[in-house]
């Protein structure tokens, strides 16, 4: 299939474009490069545009004869969303409405939507199923839930067919070291811990050491970005086979604590991770772990590289390689 990947120059989008190409599909990336990187687009064309430009999206859909859409484009920082709620709804909801409008005009029916476990808010249970009540506690999660509602109604009207993938904690890097996690303002624990181990930052902050967990730190379900990417290919295959529209959790069914992550970074890298305790962040639940049963049953998807050791090892190798490339570039410029 010719597949439009919105936000395909970003972290998960670029890994998914690679997975699509390996699966025999042609990924066509549309990205305004506000947070993504052009060098991540290696398996198909890049069209630099914002999905809020309905006419630009329509031209891409028509020119490349797009058969399905994988939709990543949007803003994804929880803290920033609390400070800029209007911008988040404009980007995440408004941009998606524009994309859906273009799809309707051209007649593209199938969409896989990048959603989030943030739509659940503070869950009532440790192992989260898709039937868990959705009650977001920040604008980011609320904007994603709003999009889920829109596509659900459009599905009931038989205008589109959809799968919403609710991610838990994406982590790691491409096993081939071609892609990795490179955010301008990093908020994820593994790259932050690696940066602290390599003395690129003073220390790692541990937000909360008094949770009701075995070691007092928060537990999260970490899933390798390559496994996330493969799930999108499975979701497209599922829709192509005529599968019913639905939301699906993407996680492993088990979690790791902050201290366990730090210990693994130290073990893999061989350097200590300087860390300091900090107060809990408002709204952070003690445990967030996904039930992966629906993804297994309907998408026939199983994570294959999401052990904590593999996640950290691939992230470490990519991070060290990226730093070496930066130093080589700086030397070349200086000479």
Helix content: 40-55%
Q: Kindly state the number of beta strands.
A: 15
- Report the β-strand fraction as a percent range: 15-25%
User: What is the element string, with H for helices and E for strands?
Assistant: EHEEHEHHEEHEEHEEEHEEHEEHH
Largest beta sheet: strand ordering:
3-2-1-4-5-7-12
Multimeric state: single chain
Class computed from helices, strands and strand pairing: alpha/beta
Number of helices: 10
Average of the residue pLDDT scores: 93
Low-confidence stretches: 326-335
Q: What is the overall silhouette? A: globular
The end-to-end span amounts to 46 Å
Major beta-sheet overview: 7 strands, parallel
Rg result: 19 Å
Structure description:
By secondary structure, this protein is α/β, with parallel strands linked by helices. Helices cover 41% and strands 18% of the residues. The chain contains 10 helices and 15 strands. It has helices at residues 11-22, 54-63, 78-83, 85-106, 139-156, 189-197, 225-240, 258-269, 293-299, 308-334; strands at 2-6, 26-30, 46-47, 68-71, 110-116, 127-128, 161-167, 169-171, 204-207, 219-220, 222-224, 246-250, 256-257, 275-278, 287-290. The strands form 4 sheets. The protein has a 7-stranded parallel beta sheet with strand order 3-2-1-4-5-7-12, with helices on both faces. A 4-stranded mixed beta sheet has the order 6-15-10-13. Strands 8-11 form a two-stranded parallel sheet. Helix 2 (54-63) packs parallel to helix 4. The longest helix is centred in the C-terminal third of the chain and has 27 residues, at 308-334. The radius of gyration is 19 Å and the shape is globular. The termini are far apart. 48% of the residues are buried.
